[in-house]
Protein 1
Amino acid sequence: MPEFLPAITLWQPWATLVAEGLKPFEFRKWPAPARYVHRRIAIHAGARPTRKEEVRELLLRLHSLSFRETGLAREGSIKLLESVLSSPARLPLSSVLCTAILGEPVRDAALAERLGTSFVNDSDRGEHSNWGWPLAEIERLEPFVPARGAQGFWTWERSHA
């Protein structure tokens, strides 16, 4: 019997960072819709190939004194991202990687204060860090499930064999 889950598409390497439990917050310029909060959602890796320059920039930030500003688990993220630099094509694209429980969205200033920093954002898209969406109880899918994504939330049909 199929199960229908709300899904959100993330670019790589961020989708894999979530699937590995290294990215506890998804950052967006809008709060997650209330109807999805406290529900299991699917995390989809978009079709856009991993960009080495974004990986390098994220590694620089993780190696700096301001690593807390990324909101990422530092050591595990560094290890993963360094391996991605040598082989960016190793990250899956156009696939659902995991599911997670979406928590109550947190405003950027409150999240930064909680993490002991002046701001929090894990990318160079500053306009996308207005809200942090907590992601918990990650369940990795093995194997990953090929799927076509969309902008914003969309519905993913999960088949149970």
Protein 2
Amino acid sequence: MENTLHVEQRGAVCVLTLFRPEKRNAINDELLGALELFFQAIPESARVVVLQGSGEHFCSGLDLAERLAKSSQNPIDGVRHSRRWHRVFEMIQYGEIPVVSVLKGAVIGGGMELAVSTHVRVAERQTFFRLPEGQHGIFVGGGGSVRIPRIIGAGRMMEMMLTGRQYDAGEGVQMGLVHHLVKPGQGLAHALELAERIASNAFLSNYAIINAIPRAMDMSTSDGLFAESMVGALTRAGADGRERIQRYFETRKKTPEKK
């Protein structure tokens, strides 16, 4: 794992660093496997993950050189490879703890698919987004056709893939790809600050937020409302939730109201 993915524990926050700077952190089979191993067994003390890229870029997507060397005439091999990406990125999106990504430089193709599987996205101003699959004669395979249109719309995604157009970080904010825009070099510090804030939330609430909201989008209105009631009841019934609400009211009693 250490060859392609560095792991650093900072209290309740676990910092993951994609470590292939010479390849702009392109995802090869080894890096994908390292991500899979980590998210299969996240340290019990971790409450938030911060995901970043080494060097000047977040991730330039699929390692095309490796894919070309391993290309096969059997289409099922391509299906298996894509489904592995799906499995790993689903572990990120629907895991037990939130993931904050630090975006900088290239967020291209599979790198963009990885980014949108995270829950909070911090981008430095030099960040740029591209989906060049149309120019490469391929198609997205890491869940992008499902996740990306839900953020930027199907029309925008088609335009990006057809034309290869590049969008900057400011445009990423407008499209919903970026939640927090910061100056170059400030991404990690800002992400760690957000992560500490998120880690202070109730564990069960964080779990419910990252798992229930995206699933509710797939449901009918009636089913979504029922699921919301069930999940809300579970979080309120938890010991942590009861204690936090009690502390809130005790604090209110001690704090005089302003007239």
Protein 3
Amino acid sequence: MKTLTRWTAVAAAVLAVAGCSSDVGKDAAPVALIVTNSQILQTLDLNGGTGCAQDVGTINLQATIKNPNQISDQTFNQVRVTRYRVTYSRTDGGKIVPASFVRTIDTLLTPGGAPSSSTKFQLFELDSLLHAPFQSLFPNNGGRDPETGRPIVALVVTVEVFGETLAGERVSGSTSFPLDFCFDCGGCS
């Protein structure tokens, strides 16, 4: 149990840096909030083990001007990122997922500026890995997901980031991490 708690704390924090997949928020603001990720782990062993003492991945936030020819003053197009929401969906046919949650953050992005790499994102509540659907993977609970009959729970973690320009126009973007959870399956990779 000590290993699970340590791993949960490590997996909960994802440092923002650079990435590969993105979703540009669709809104009327002249600025787009681009959220990308670079995934490090895809398989997470709930029993810990080799490779589990690292972050799941990194998240990068960047603001860009949608039409640079129409913007002369960047000041009011800076984006203040104020919160993020984490949601889950199953990809293995199961329906039970952890509860979604919202966290506040405070980051100011300048369009055309360097990507933000200073925000930590939490992908799971600290005790969520001890509840459905994950608890069924523990040997004392049968070692299999009751919905799928498999020893793995496959889901996608989606991080939606929200903010607004200093002019008051809302912006958002999101990125996702596909993850497979198992118990005593050889560590994290």
Protein 4
Amino acid sequence: MLRLLRSGTMTVASATAFSLSDDGLAGLRANIAAHRDKIILRPQEISNHPEVIPRLGCLAMNGMIEADITEQGIADLRGLPPRRRARQIIDHCAHPGYRPALQDYLDRATATGPGRHTPHMLGEALSWHVRYLKEGTMRPG
């Protein structure tokens, strides 16, 4: 966020709170005067209110309600429970080459995973990242 503000890519940041790395905190302290009019901390009732956010003219993400990622499409997630959100993201946002593997994972996690409302199999989910680090791709072989 601070890098985006410094570069001019982002003109103002509005939040309820934010966390910084040690380097980010040092940069904020060193340039506090420059950031004074660019960072606005608002009460949660304002920062996270779905009716207020569009009026502020900003982009917001808090427990993602709409996604436009991986340049594949858009998924409207408003009001959907976690399993239906996952299906929408797979169907509309995931790269087509990953959709079968993601759907298979979701089906198995929903049927056998520890959290049927928010299905997950953490060991397998994290193995995708490990595979990427070792093989350069997350796609199961």
